[in-house]
Amino acid sequence: MPPPAESTQPQAASILPRRSVPLSTSTCELCHIRKPFLRRPKTGQKICQPCFFHVFEREIHNTISSRNLFYRGERVAIGASGGKDSTVLAHVLKVLNERYDYGVEFVLLSIDEGIKGYRDDSLETVKRNKDQYVMPLEIVSYKELYDDWSMDDIVAQIGNRNNCTYCGVFRRQALDRGAQKLGIKHVVTGHNADDMAETVLMNLLRGDTARLDRCTEIVTQSADSPVKRSKPLKFTYEKEIVLYAHYKKLDYFSTECIYSPEAFRGTARTLIKNLETVRPSAIVDIIRSGETFALERKKGGTALKLGSCERCGYISSNRICKACVLLEGLNAGRAAVQVNGVEYEPDEGAALRKRLEHLSF
Amino acid sequence: MAVSLTVEFSGGLEALFNNSRSMNLSLASRDGSESSPTIADLVVHLCEKVMTSKRRELFVIDGYHVRPGILVLINDADWELEGEEEYVIQQGDQILFASTLHGG
Q: CB B104 to CB A190 under 8 A?
């Protein structure tokens, strides 16, 4: 098989080198032998399954090696939810680690948010992945980290409106703490190109210029986290991830979280998918735009001062970390319920946080 | 002319079809003509006769067009190579609708 064309910086079909031989629609555009099975959204090429596996894996390897994501002997945790993205990530990293001899030790790290009928089932998938990929598995739960609160308990108390705020803050810290428990300083996540394009759009639409600047970085190390994050699937299309998982018959879990997702994100996602239908390269084009935005910095920038949370001792740029602020609200509600036997009035997560931050400064 | 085929759902779409992941169907062309049915005919049939959920917009938009973000595979091949909605279904075809929209 001739080496198929590769790219870490995907290009639009129109600027791919022209071939002198006319394109045949009946054979793969890379090997010119087998029947094509799919059209790559990134390049428009019609290719067969073996060539697809080759370019799919090779591009992820190129991303990893060109950005020096790993070093030999490094221990790296794979944030594993049991869903398609992290399952494909774990599979491909295992393949590449062996094929290109990265010398990296991978561990699966899962968060149990405590959502019955959703996370309990997906964790069963991760437990099977542990054996399939021969990687150790660590599961950390919200219940053990956050004063015995599971997401089900939180939603029972605050209702169905702001739960993603809580879950987001808690999950970020939970991944860090899980990694630290394992003595690991690097977590890779399964965020794909579609996710990243969606985040660029959301930050643009919200005018969140601080995040717009950073959200396309492949490696992020934030001031209030001791753990580095990276996204090896940054340039990988969701369509190809689903096809790869399907053709390789990977064992993954696909059910939507039972709690209503953020409406704004859903709208951005629909927009991305509609754009992809009309112009498949739109996804990488949006990422490219995000990467090349140069935003003017305000004078006397707001460098974050590192400290630790007065409550839990965790690294925080505020006196009290976000998770503890949210927990305080939850615990106050729980106490009120216990004392009065009346229902706690739900509070807006963001408003609550602002109020508490104001009080503590 | 009626053809028999297998339809599969994955990626969460099964929830719209009574949690059924796979079903065998016999399908004729919508206009009652002698010609074999197309994917477009199949999608209408699935919406009208098979779907158990009221949330049709999770499967089709603008009438009966498969929603962007849902992958369609015809005998494991990307439907973009086969003419998409206009593909004429052959006896024994296996057609998979896979949502790519769910979390990872």
A: yes
